[in-house]
Amino acid sequence: MTGRTWMALGLVAALLTGTGARAETERPATAAERFEKMTPEQKEALRGKLREFKSLPRDEQTRIRGNLERWRKLPPEERERLRANQRELRKLNAAERQALREQARELRKMDPERRTQMRQRMKAYLKENPERREQLMENMRRWRQMTPEQRQEMRERVRERRRR
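and the corresponding structure tokens:
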């Protein structure tokens, strides 16, 4: 995603979540009420994001609005899961985020059935082996740091081990 898209998504997140980490019951009922509770700096930042959003091409705005509508329809637990994912993504450095984007692109290129199978297997594996999650993350970090030649060498070693 481009920087502009991330900024537009930030606008959407700001509009969705209000300005603070308040409990759901404490949140004002309308966007106007939430806006009125913002500080002048927060209001100006939001106005800036709105200007950026409006400067996006019409099709990009439509795509973002569609994402917002899907977000609003999500159950609260799914929204929280996505927020947790976003917090984890923010912890990654730029190179790690870029590598993750590239991996996501590769995953989207896969046949939908194979992609679904892979996700199910990974979820089952991590559910059965929660202690392996950190090791898996470390392995992924190392993989991303490898050159294409090193990755190919590693693939060949794994294939050789499977043949034995």
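(Above: one complete record from the training split.) The radius of gyration is 20 Å.
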